Every structure is written in C-alpha cells, then in structure tokens.
Amino acid sequence: MPSLATSTPQQLQSLNMNGEDKTRQKTRTCILTSRLHCKSSQKAVSNGLRPEELIQWSQSLERLLASKYGTVVFKTFLKSEFSDENIEFWLVCEDYKKIKSSFRMSSKAMKIYKRYVQAEAPREINIDHKTRDLIRRNVKAPSSVCFDEAQRIVYGLMEGDSYPRFIRSDLYKTLIHST
Length: 179
Prior knowledge:
Blueprint: H1 9-13, H2 22-38, H3 41-47, H4 51-57, H5 61-66, H6 68-80, H7 85-96, H8 102-117, H9 129-138, H10 148-168, H11 170-178
InterPro entries: RGS, RGS_sf, RGS_subdom1/3, RGS_subdomain_2
Protein name: Regulator of G-protein signaling 13
Domain RGS: 60-176
C-alpha cells in the first residue's frame, strides 16, 4: 500500500478509520505513522502532500476544504468519529450549486433533502426545525441557493467543533511530522 502522504484522494478516502476504542485508535495511528514514513519526504513532496499545504490546513477550515487532499483527509477523520454526514452534506451542496439543468436540479434537491435534511433522514444533519422547514419549502421550487442556510449552519458546526478536533488529532499531527 502506498504511504498516506503520497496517496491519491481516492486511496485516502478508502482507508478504514473506525476508531471503536482507544487501543485500536493508537494501533491505527502507529500503522499510519509507519506508512507515512515508508517513503522519503522528497517523494512525498513531489507526488502528494506538500508541507506548505499541510500547514495551510491549520489556518482555516476554508483552506482545508480548498485542498483536494485536505477534504479527503478531513472526511476520513470525521468518518473515524462517526460524524461525516456534515462534510458529505456540505460537499453535495457544493456540487448541487453547479447544476444548470432545472430537471437535474429538482431531482438532486429532493435526493439531498431526503438523505440529509428531512426528519429521521438516513444521514440527518443537525439543523433547527425552522431551517428544515425553509428547505422543505425551497425544494418544491429548487434553486442553486435552496440549501444555503443549512450549508451555512453545517459549516459553522464543522468550523467550531470538528475542525479544531481535526487539527489536534493524531492523524493531522502524523501528517505534519511525516513531510
């Protein structure tokens, strides 16, 4: 298996980061550290993550999400904490905003609503009922901004909670020390 530092985003995303207990988490961190050090830092710089990019991730959530590797690593971290629905929702909304066809927009809006927004949704995000009702009305006549309020709330939750935990995580520290 390639080292984490030189892996493609798809390879990073496929990592199984379950974290059921502290022992497994420590073992996983040791394995990740070992994988990270398998390749020389020169190869990591030329084929994958650059140290400057990793350092920029610590400056803001916006910078982390602007990086294709950052997004994948952050999503992997959130999966390990069983809280990846927020980043999934945020990313799906970013893709949704790019849709030009009204038919596709309508279909995608309903899928997003059913998967993330409606009460008891399979990947329900944490938003207030007022926002949930607003989106329910918005998806009846969808536009590129119909999920903006929920997306703003979710971004705030990630920025205030998940992102600081990620920056303090063993995963991020291991990546920083490996390049």
